[in-house]
Design brief:
With 86 residues, this protein is an alpha+beta fold. The chain has one domain: Flavocytochrome B2, Chain A, domain 1, CATH 3.10.120.10. Helix content is 24%, strand content 23%. Strands 1-5-4-3-2 form a five-stranded mixed β-sheet. The longest helix is centred in the last third of the chain and has 8 residues. Bound molecules: protoporphyrin IX containing FE. Protoporphyrin IX containing FE binds next to α2, α3 and α4.
């Protein structure tokens, strides 16, 4: 449920930027995209461009009609939040 989801600032998101451990944010939600990489119709290389960062802009530019919330529901890790100010 929603209670088990994490609040993830950009500095944490950034650490998950490898093929084996790839997270990306789309419209405020952070997904583990690793299991989906080999299924992406646009290719693994394209999807890896947004690993470790917010992919909302590139996603909207390429296919705003694709429902990422529905497709990657089981890969939801948490929510992107602002960097806490020490
Ligand atoms: C194609 C899903 C992220 C680039 C597609 C298609 C789907 C999809 C379903 C086929 C769409 C269609 O034919 O109408 C996803 C999901 C993403 C994601 C679920 C997020 C996890 C991205 C990102 C980029 C990208 C971030 C760019 C950096 C492309 C391109 C195609 C494509 C270029 C077109 C491939 C072609 O028609 O030859 N994606 N995508 N995708 N995607 Fe993604």
């Amino acid at each position: 449920g929603v209670d088990s989801l994490m609040r993830i600032p950009p500095s944490i998101l950034k650490k998950h930027n490898t093929r084996e451990d790839a997270w990306s944010a789309f419209n405020g939600k952070v997904y583990n995209i690793t299991p989906y990489l080999s299924f992406h119709p646009g290719g693994e290389k394209e999807l890896m461009r947004v690993a470790g960062r917010d992919g909302s802009k590139l996603f909207a530019l390429t296919h705003a009609w694709v429902n990422v919330d529905f497709m990657l529901d089981s890969c939801l890790v948490g929510f992107l939040v602002p960097e806490p100010s020490s």
